[in-house]
Amino acid sequence: MHSILTRILAALAAIAAFSVATPPAQAAPTAYFVMTDITREEFVVQLTDPGKIQHARDLLSGATEDRPHVVGRIIKRPTPYNPRWSYHLNPDTVDFFDYAIEVCDATIPYVEDHLDEAGGAFLPGLVWCDWSSRLVRELTP
């Protein structure tokens, strides 16, 4: 009995030591960028990937011209950082591109006007890649 109790106490002590020694997970960085397209409407994109945030900042600063257009999967509901529109992009799916297939191309207001059709023949899989999209500025918190 003493041996089992000793093992249990040792295991609990190890678990307690591990939980104290393990630093809390870092919160993912978040940045917000305004994009526009040929309609001159503006749409806010949330980025949480450090590499993509840096790429967006490099586009804005002129450090790169590679992959200037925005692509991502639509979520059909508004979000507080993009209140004008009834949809937003899932931050986990946002990326940048040079060229994309035509089936995902649409302007910001066209997506809004046809949101009920998105995910079918229009923007299959809810993937949106506005060919004329470009970032215009980063929003500060």
Give the biggest sheet: 4 strands, antiparallel
Q: What is the number of strand segments?
A: 9
Helix content: 25-40%
Uncertain residue ranges? 4-24
Strand content: 25-35%
Shape annotation: globular
Q: Kindly report how far apart the N and C termini lie.
A: 59 Å
Average the pLDDT over all residues and give the rounded result.
85
Summarize, please:
The protein is of the alpha+beta class and 141 residues long. It has helices at residues 2-21, 50-61, 108-113, and strands at 31-36, 42-47, 69-75, 88-89, 95-97, 118-119, 122-124, 127-128, 134-139. Strands 3, 4, 5 and 8 form a 4-stranded antiparallel beta sheet that branches. Strands 2-1-9 form a 3-stranded antiparallel beta sheet, with helices on one face. Strands 6-7 form a two-stranded parallel sheet.
Keyphrases for this structure?
three-stranded antiparallel β-sheet; 141 residues; four-stranded antiparallel β-sheet; alpha+beta
Folded structure, characterized:
A hairpin with a 5-residue loop joins strand 1 (31-36) and strand 2. The chain is built from three helices and nine strands, in the order H-E-E-H-E-E-E-H-E-E-E-E. It is globular, with a radius of gyration of 22 Å. With 141 residues, it is an alpha+beta fold. The chain has helices at residues 2-21, 50-61, 108-113; strands spanning 31-36, 42-47, 69-75, 88-89, 95-97, 118-119, 122-124, 127-128, 134-139. Helix content is 27%, strand content 26%. Mean pLDDT is 85; it is low at 4-24. The protein has one domain (31-139). The strands form three sheets. Strands 3, 4, 5 and 8 form a four-stranded antiparallel beta sheet that branches.
